[in-house]
Amino acid sequence: MANASVVTTRRSSMTLTWIAFWLLVVGGVNWLLVGLFRFDLVAAIFGAESSVARAVYVLVGIAAVYCAFAIPALRTSVAARV
After folding, report:
1. Dihedral of alpha carbons 32, 35, 38, 42, sign
2. Residues in the chain with pLDDT < 70?
3. With the C-alpha atoms ordered 62, 68, 69, 70, is the resulting torsion angle positive or negative?
4. Distance CA 44, CA 8 (A)
5. I need a surface site. Which of 20, 38, 60, 61 has the fewest CB within 10 A?
């Protein structure tokens, strides 16, 4: 029974990591557009000063902090299993 909870926890962790990764990709593409063309895609979609745009920026920032800690931990976890 303990094995099932470990698998569920690991699956949840991987799902969260993938969501954070894709949020980072969205943020990276947005910054690429800002840097190259001075075009903020998030602001264009949701409005420059909208609360939704701010929420997207906050989520991308949280994803960056999460990935800064989670991805090295995943690497250590995978190395330990090999």
Report:
1. positive
2. 1-2, 4-7, 74, 76-82
3. positive
4. 38
5. 38
